[in-house]
Amino acid sequence: MTRRPFILRNPSILIFLALLAIFTAAVTLMSEAFGTAMISTSFVKTLGKTLCLCLVALAMDLVWGYCGILSLGHFAFFGLGGYMIGMWLMYARTEIIVTESLANAAIPPTDQEIVDAIGTQIFGVVGSSDFPPIWAFAHSLPLQLLMVVLVPGLLALVFGWLAFRSRVTGVYLSILTQAMTLALSLYLFQNESGLRGNNGLSGLQNLPGVAASQAVVSVWFLWASALALGLGYLLCAWVVSGKFGSVVRGIRDDEARVRFLGYSVEGYKLFIFTLTAIIAGIAGALYYPQAGIINPGEVAPIASIYLAVWVAIGGRGRLYGAVIGAALVSLISTWFTGGLVPSVPLGFYTIDWVDWWLVLLGLSFVLVTLFAPKGIGGLFDLVSGRFAPDRHGADYGPDKGSLQEEEGRG
Amino acid sequence: MFLRLIAAAALSLLAAGPGSAQDADAPIQQLLQQHSGIIQDSSRRTIQPAIDAIRDSGLPRAQLVLEKWAAREMWLDEETGLFVHAEEIDRDTLRIFDFATGEEIGEVPDDTYDQLKPNSGIRGLINSALVRFQLSDPDPANRLSALQSLERNGNESHLSVLRDSIDGEPDPAIRARKERIERLLTISFGATADERIAAMEAFRGDLGVDVRAKLNPILTTRTSAGAALPEGVNLARELTPGTDITESEAYELLVSEGLAPARLTPDAQRRTLQDNIVGGMVGGVAVPDLRSPAARDRAYAALVGAGRAEPAATNAEAARAIEDHVFYETYVETDAAVTGAAEDVLTSIEMTVAMNQFLDLSLDALSLASIYFLAAIGLAITFGVMGVINMAHGEFIMMGAYTGYVIQQIIPNYTVSILVAIPVAFAVTFGAGVAMERLVIRWLYSRPLETLLATFGISIALQQIAKNVFGTQARPLTSPGWLDGAWIMNDVVSISYIRIAIFVLALVFLAVFLFIMKKTRLGLETRAVTQNPRMAASMGINPDRVNMLTFGLGSGIAGIAGVAIGLYAKVTSELGSDYIVQSFMTVVVGGVGNIWGTLLGATMIGFLQKGIEWLNPSNTLAAQTYMIVFIIIFIQFRPRGIIALRGRAAGD
């Protein structure tokens, strides 16, 4: 039997890409720069950022929903990607400013003088003026773009190799990844880290050497984020389809059995872990130029847990679920914390949603975990009729300990 | 009107009357008259002879004069030129006293009296003159305060005074202190080198900060350079450029001593070039070409050739200059025997200090370990024994701390409120734990990862609720008065009573935990349910009830830990999340399911963190970072912790 083309086997990809294209075109046409100006530039930025969050949620879904590794460190990779691109943005922009101000001097500055002046500008806030070694590539966009991929990728590779090799699994692995995230954010909080301590990197929204207004730049970033999300979706869908995907899902369901079948479980896990870290890094590199600022608080363990929350609410184990969860929760969160939701007067107390939104989120998250483990994505099953295999109540496998059908659906 | 007239008349009578009553011939008054000029002059530079004369006069009233003078209570009668001391009754009236007799002369208007206002410099001189009197004052409190001022700023003149006062000292404690200060002053101001060395030797191994403060200045050095090592100075050591002193520092030293020409800094070079731009050219090089350092050097060389710039030392010349000179440190103190003895004694002191610092650090580490243990012991039950990941554990700690705070608002007595807070905190968090187990965790026993997420949802909700109720600012949980202060063993080793209390509390918890798990029915049932719930159920144990109670117990202990932690840390809504990762680390490192493992894990993490902090004292953040990295690596080698369960109890 000939295999049908990849796209046709996964109709959800076509639907998703079409919706993404329609969304991007619609936002472009309603933006201030290219259309009717129905939505403000800051909202275009919010939408662009949301697309990046969808991309990192996609990565999280791949590593958690498909491979069963509940990583509480993927937002750290996201932040690292942001730091890497932020270094170039900050360097290049400061270079332009410094060169302009030195151009008026009687004697043209030497390269060393320019670099020293940039260092003073950037590191003045942490009481230093020398470039730390990690800024060695900051002057070059291609090299720094390479770092966006390499730094999160290498960190994930080394960490994953250490963790998977010693067979740390389940909740232990989650706690270990959380510890890694905590260590990273504590490290970044120090001024000695060379990344400006808790000041973080700022002014990232200004693209060096680009004269276009923020309205235009925001739409460019929207396009880039949409493109990255589309490509990321394709890549993830391709990875989880076919034989490779089956093995990955097998690891999630019963790691020991896959190992006994002769597969190198550690290799598969390491590949997925590293790949998703790279995707997260790229998403971060697109996110922070739109946010304009990155500081170590972004890397804190709590952010990675929120990422897991989005994926769980959207529905893990299906790629569009992660996208829906990230988009929905982050947009609703913006809406609630922005003070746009009217307060609820109870007579004795007024519920101000800016304060109570997190309580609502936490509790609804508990409810989703308890009552709707499939998340929002589970609703699509009602439409497509895609249920778990119907075995009329028998268990799934020959083993006594294998899942009963009731459990399998849960 | 009438009354006022009478008052004025009476005052004028008084003013005329008492002036004559003063004895102008009394010895103390004569002494003051003798120095009247400089006393009125009131200048720090000239006042010393007057003070010395009064101090050394041996007159019984000398101390009174100095005290009144320093207190700005000495006045000068402008008409007679006599000195009196006086109290200001109101703005215009003085009650004056005779120095010689100490008797009140009367109340006078202050028109004809001039107050002497010694500035702070002069008051310092007067006070140090007063030391002689104070050191043999009958009141021990005055003697002690005099000694205190001697400790701070004793000088050469005090040494003999102090020595004279030692023999007559009746109080043994004050006498010992006087002797110590006498030795300290001898170190700095002793007349002969032998005397000073003997004083130093007496302090061998002494931990006092005051001793080090006296010895260190003796070893102050000055770095200098010269063609050869000088003779007749107290040489500390010779410096080798490149190892003891960087090459650039060495060259700067040469420049500052005028032994070599200054090297050309890029800044100076740029300024010189800038000053010599002629028609877009500098020294034959076009200005736009000056972008490169090589072109700048060429232009500068051309300027030097034309005599318009100072020749600057090249790198080779600088290297040769450094080679041709020697660099050395000399002691400011000229006597080599004194510096040698000081160094010797200081080394012995530093050895003792290092040992005591190690002891102090160990105590710190132990107390940090007991805090981690306290935070983790509840987890050792819920996570270690039951295998439930409770991310809201930190919030239970926070709830305990806030319970303590609320109780303190109701009961103002700190001791009683803490004693009430501990059981109430246990009750509150026990209830919260039971509710959480009933409502959420019970349904997720087969899905541990989802337990993690659901309890995390509860954790953010609880944290935000605490923020909404108590606000974002830190709330104080005040410890009772008897826990204030610290147990000070010597100048180096000390530990606060709160930390000791937390340590004791940790030990008590350990005992309680062991007792419950090993000796009670609940412990037996818990262990049975954990190992094999079905088997336990068939033996008549109700697993649901046992799970509920065990989880409640773990949460309740977290609440008590919260009260203890709140006593020394500020109570905020983020209190719990500060401890949650470390607590999990403690349990995982120690080995899940074993309380001794948790104890070892907490001890290891506590000592490790303090150790790293000691290596890099400025940076607690770095210490935590390295500690976590170390733990991640540690888990590579012992994935199941320090004490790993074996056999069937290990479960999976």
Automatic annotation (TrEMBL), chain A:
Q: Does this UniProt record's set of keywords contain NADP?
A: no
List each coiled-coil range: none
Q: Which domain of life is it from?
A: Bacteria
Report the principal subcellular site.
membrane
GO CC annotations on file: plasma membrane
Answer whether the UniProt record assigns the keyword Cell membrane to this protein: yes
UniProt KW keywords: Cell membrane, Membrane, Transmembrane, Transmembrane helix
One GO molecular-function annotation for this sequence?
branched-chain amino acid transmembrane transporter activity
Q: Which residue ranges run through the membrane?
A: 74-91, 141-164, 171-189, 220-240, 267-287, 293-313, 320-341, 353-372
Q: Where in the cell is it found?
A: Cell membrane
Question: How is it placed in the membrane, per its record?
Answer: Multi-pass membrane protein
PANTHER family according to UniProt: HIGH-AFFINITY BRANCHED-CHAIN AMINO ACID TRANSPORT SYSTEM PERMEASE, SLR1201 PROTEIN
- Provide the protein name: Branched-chain amino acid ABC transporter, permease protein
Say which species the protein is native to.
Pseudooceanicola batsensis (strain ATCC BAA-863 / DSM 15984 / KCTC 12145 / HTCC2597) (Oceanicola batsensis)
Per the UniProt record, the lineage of the source organism begins with: Bacteria, Pseudomonadati, Pseudomonadota, Alphaproteobacteria, Rhodobacterales
Automatic annotation (TrEMBL), chain B:
What superkingdom does the record give?
Bacteria
The text of the family note is:
Belongs to the binding-protein-dependent transport system permease family. LivHM subfamily.
As for subcellular location, the record says: Cell membrane
Molecular functions (GO terms): transmembrane transporter activity
Chief site of localization:
membrane
What is the native source organism of this protein?
Pseudooceanicola batsensis (strain ATCC BAA-863 / DSM 15984 / KCTC 12145 / HTCC2597) (Oceanicola batsensis)
The protein's topology relative to the membrane is: Multi-pass membrane protein
**What name does UniProt use for this protein?**
Branched-chain amino acid ABC transporter, permease protein
